[in-house]
Specification:
The protein is mostly helical. Helix content is 70%, strand content 0%. It is elongated and about 60 Å long.
């Protein structure tokens, strides 16, 4: 969190620095405190001591602000998965479970971004930057599924269906784990436990 978020300034004084970035940081902090449904532009502005008109000037409305956060979320998400993938050196299907681990780890590390990235009712899904960032993340997963199929894993299955299924599996685990529901039915909610869940369904190159 930036120092601009932690320290309240008198409203009306000049803001030194990147105001757009500061507003996003303040919004991310507010999301952590109250959630997306209760976030208000006035509260975001108050946190950094600027006029309540400032968020509207930079983002238009609440949906515009949340869209900017969601877009950044997908950019961080793609970088996070890419870094996780670059550290792996095994069969593609075995790597798939580890990418599921990275997916869940992202939700744990960036909870505010994760909350709004998949909430189309709260954001502008036709925003070009958001659509591009989201499509890029999905395409990276689709390409990895294609690598799995090229190696012989479910080679004749529909690639689109497999990609959607892998996404749904990882996302479902992440949400259940975040909400605390997973632990009621599965004892190991650690990241290693996430890998075990994924492998139980996905199988492995050796199976």
């Amino acid at each position: 969190m930036s120092s601009a978020v932690r320290k309240t300034r008198p409203v009306g004084t000049h803001f030194d620095g990147d105001l757009r970035r500061a507003l996003m940081d303040a919004a991310i902090a507010t999301l952590a405190d109250v959630g997306a449904d209760h976030l208000s532009l006035r509260e975001v502005a108050r946190r950094i001591g600027v006029s309540h008109a400032a968020p509207a000037h930079h983002f238009g409305d609440k949906a515009g602000l949340l869209t900017a956060i969601a877009t950044e979320g997908f950019e961080l998400f793609s970088a996070h998965l890419s870094a996780a993938g670059s550290a792996l050196d095994s069969a593609p299907v075995d790597e798939l479970a580890m990418l599921g681990r990275a997916y869940v780890q992202f939700a744990e590390t960036f909870p505010a971004h994760f909350e709004v990235m998949f909430r189309p009712s709260l954001i502008c899904v036709d925003d070009p930057a958001f659509a591009g960032a989201g499509d890029a993340a999905f395409e990276a997963l689709r390409r990895h599924i294609a690598r799995c199929q090229d190696s012989g894993w479910r080679a004749h299955a529909d690639n689109g269906a497999l990609t959607a299924a892998a996404w749904a599996l990882a996302h479902g685990i992440a949400v259940l784990r975040t909400q605390g529901s997973l632990g009621r039915h599965y004892a190991d909610v650690s990241l290693d436990g996430v890998v075990a869940i994924a492998r139980a369904l996905l199988g492995s190159a050796a199976s």
